[in-house]
Amino acid sequence: MMTKHAFVIACAFLVLAGTLPAAEEDFFPIGVWFSGNLDRIGVPMTGNPVMDRPVLENYLRTSFTHIRALGFNAIVVTAPFPEEYGELLFGEAEAAGLKVALQFSEIYDTVAGMKEFPVDATGQVVEETRTRILDSIGRSVENLQARYGGYASFWQYGITDEINEKQVDPVKGMWVPAAEKVREFDTARAAFSTFSIGMDDPLTRITSVLARYDAPFLVYNYYPFQVRTNPETGPYEVVHPKRFADTMERVRAVAGNVPRWPVIQSFAKEVPNAGDGINLYFPSPAEMRFQVYTALASGVKGEFFFMYQTLLNNPNEKLYGIAKAYPNNAPEHIPTVTSQGQTTVALAKILGKVGPTLAGCVRAP
Question: Distance of alpha carbon 19 from its chain centroid, rounded?
Answer without folding.
Answer: 32
